[in-house]
Inverse folding.
């Protein structure tokens, strides 16, 4: 019996090594879930083009305040999570525009009909292009920008805030870093050793001087609430940590719910 078990050990090792090799090769397919189709333009949005430093032209949407609402000349740059496209964030954009804020819905490379494939460095270039559009063509002052990141986008927004400080930073359901989040869902893999894209949110938020608000749900099964709270604890200039009771990662309350909208309003009021 012992000999039979020993003979089975090499086969187990081969299977484990094969799983690790597949995880290395295809890891970005389980990190990024883009909706690659070009979404139809809503009547309340304007199509804009963002130009990245590595030569991509990315489609995005700008959603201004409606005509009957005073334009406060504050822009919210939205960096969404790892799934879908800009069309899934229109509820958020519409709600914020109704408060007098202009919203730029960034779509990353490979998302929403855009060229390219997503990577950590690529998403950083995309965020830089979005900010350049806002302070350039759109004419917003650099000290009138709020960065809004959700889930994976919290890493994108935090990295942007380190490179180009905003007036305020809102992080919705942040993880401490991608490896920590991935280990929750793939405990059988050496995730930290395998990952090419790191997205260190907790590490970078210590360098952000802008007022920062963290919002997360107590019932989040995608990003553990403890990781979101750890990001809040690490923030250099935390204004508030808001826990939404019984809210899951993808609940609608994180698009146009009162806690989220009030958090953005808090940052906007501080701008003036």
């Amino acid at each position: 019996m012992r000999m039979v078990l020993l003979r089975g050990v090499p086969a187990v090792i081969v299977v484990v090594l094969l799983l690790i090799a597949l995880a290395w090769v295809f890891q970005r397919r389980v990190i990024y879930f883009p909706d690659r189709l070009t979404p139809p333009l809503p009547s309340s949005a304007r199509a804009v083009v963002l130009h990245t430093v590595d030569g991509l032209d990315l489609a995005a949407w700008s959603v201004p305040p409606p005509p009957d609402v005073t334009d406060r000349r504050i822009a919210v740059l939205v960096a969404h999570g790892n799934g879908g496209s800009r069309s899934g964030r229109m509820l958020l954009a519409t709600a914020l525009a109704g408060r007098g804020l202009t919203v730029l819905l960034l779509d990353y490379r490979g998302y929403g009909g855009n060229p390219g494939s997503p990577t950590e460095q690529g998403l950083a270039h995309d965020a830089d292009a979005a900010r350049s559009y806002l302070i350039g063509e759109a004419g917003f002052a650099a000290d009138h920008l709020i960065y809004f990141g959700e889930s994976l986008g919290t890493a994108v927004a935090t990295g942007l805030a380190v490179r180009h400080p905003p007036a305020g930073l809102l992080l919705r359901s942040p993880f401490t870093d991608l490896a920590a989040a991935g280990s929750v869902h793939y405990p059988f893999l050496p995730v930290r050793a395998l990952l090419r894209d790191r997205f260190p949110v907790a590490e970078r938020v210590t360098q952000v001087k802008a007022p920062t608000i963290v919002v997360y749900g107590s019932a989040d099964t995608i990003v553990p609430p403890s990781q979101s709270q750890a990001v809040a604890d690490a923030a250099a200039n935390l204004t508030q940590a808001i826990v939404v009771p019984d809210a899951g990662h993808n609940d609608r309350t994180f698009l146009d719910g009162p806690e989220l909208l009030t958090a953005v309003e808090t940052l906007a009021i501080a701008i003036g």
Summary: The two ends are 76 Å apart (CA to CA).
